[in-house]
Amino acid sequence: MVKSILDSSKGNLNRSNAAAICLNILSNSDYRIRSINDALADNYGEDIAAWVPPKTERDGFYENGSGGTELGFNGGLPSNLKTDVTVCKDGSGGCYKTVQEAVNTAPANAESTRRFVIYIKEGVYEETVRVPLEKKNVVFLGDGMGKTIITGALNAGMPGLTTYETATVGVLGDGFMASGLTIRNTAGPDAHQAVAFRSDSDLSVIENCEFLGNQDTLYAHSLRQFYRKCRIQGNVDFIFGNSASVFQDCEILVAPRQVKPEKGENNAVTAHGRTDPAQSTGLVFQNCLINGTDEYMRYYYGKPKVHKNFLGRPWKEYSRTVFINCVMEALINPNGWMPWKGDFALKTLFYGEFGNSGLGSIPLNRVPWSTQIPSQHVHTFSVQNFIQGDQWIPTSS
């Protein structure tokens, strides 16, 4: 049916692009469904009538997992990576001039242990990059944040584009890794949603990367993702999606709004999109700094009452976000969290905190629908337990 809509939509950019996106999603969904097979039956038994919504943290139930009770985890990109192809601005010495050209040379459906390493030399690469589903275990290595820059300006206000399609870099292939890059979206002040990086890559590891944008900077769309020592900058819902992601030792920075930043705003750092209590998804921040850019903090200290920033708000009904041992600076509102609209999701979300410090971390005035996680349960959200990282994240970094 979607194909027939696509065929009949020539000349209508919005409609044809929407149909093309649907075809891609159906293809990706077919692959994912085949990979998990009958997971519900495995977990809940063959008697469908007996399937009931699982208990959640809001019911006082915390999963123990098999990763032990330690919060600490030291993993990241492996240290012995060898370059397969190189990208450079002038194309000299046989290197590719664009990142996408290099991605296109990666083998399809490579062996699970074989990584395809793309070294991207210092420079500004103005392009939209897509790593398709069949390109597994692709690695981007740059020369450092602010040196190797991939930049774009797509936004959801453009004809035929959804938020999903605005990403400067979008990854579907599992096992993606990246280090030493800046990825940004420079869409203008009237652009609304404009994604810098989007990942649907299971078992992905991102280290020492910078993501710059405004609304919807980092789209952690789905599956298991690990971010270490990264910098993420934006203002409206700038870390969002329905993945199971852990952010470790990252710098989370609120940037000024692009239009009349001095007037004030209500910003949410996160907007997690869990739609079902059975989904093992959520955003977990460990040992991160939550602050503003230098420019934003000048506005904030000038009129602190009009500049309101919150840790998150519920994009979907079972939104789950956790901050553990993070430093929260003064810009975080004492309430901590903000509603999406009215009382939507306030009885079903899980927003947890543990061991945080800084002027924005004081639990006294937190909204009643957030939770201070009991110490005996905080290990539920370790890398080992929440995303089973000890089974797939290299530890020889």
Detailed description of the structure:
Pfam families: Pectinesterase. This is Pectinesterase catalytic domain-containing protein. This protein has 397 residues and is of the alpha/beta class. The protein has a domain at 235-397: Single-stranded right-handed beta-helix, Pectin lyase-like (Pectate Lyase C-like). It contains 6 helices and 24 strands. It has helices at 2-7, 13-36, 39-44, 99-104, 294-302, 383-386, and strands at 85-87, 116-120, 123-126, 129-131, 138-141, 148-152, 169-171, 177-185, 197-199, 204-212, 218-220, 224-228, 231-234, 239-241, 244-248, 251-254, 265-272, 282-286, 289-292, 307-312, 320-324, 327-328, 350-354, 371-372. The strands form 2 sheets. It has a 17-stranded parallel sheet that branches. The chain has a 7-stranded parallel sheet with strand order 4-7-9-11-14-17-20. Strand 1 (85-87), helix 4 (99-104) and strand 2 (116-120) form a beta-alpha-beta unit. The longest helix is centred in the first third of the chain and has 24 residues, at 13-36.
List the helices and strands and how they pair.
Blueprint: H1 2-7, H2 13-36, H3 39-44, E1 85-87, H4 99-104, E2 116-120, E3 123-126, E4 129-131, E5 138-141, E6 148-152, E7 169-171, E8 177-185, E9 197-199, E10 204-212, E11 218-220, E12 224-228, E13 231-234, E14 239-241, E15 244-248, E16 251-254, E17 265-272, E18 282-286, E19 289-292, H5 294-302, E20 307-312, E21 320-324, E22 327-328, E23 350-354, E24 371-372, H6 383-386
Parallel strand pairs: 1-2, 2-5, 3-6, 4-7, 5-8, 6-8, 7-9, 8-10, 9-11, 10-12, 10-13, 11-14, 12-15, 13-16, 14-17, 15-18, 16-19, 17-20, 18-21, 19-22, 21-23, 23-24
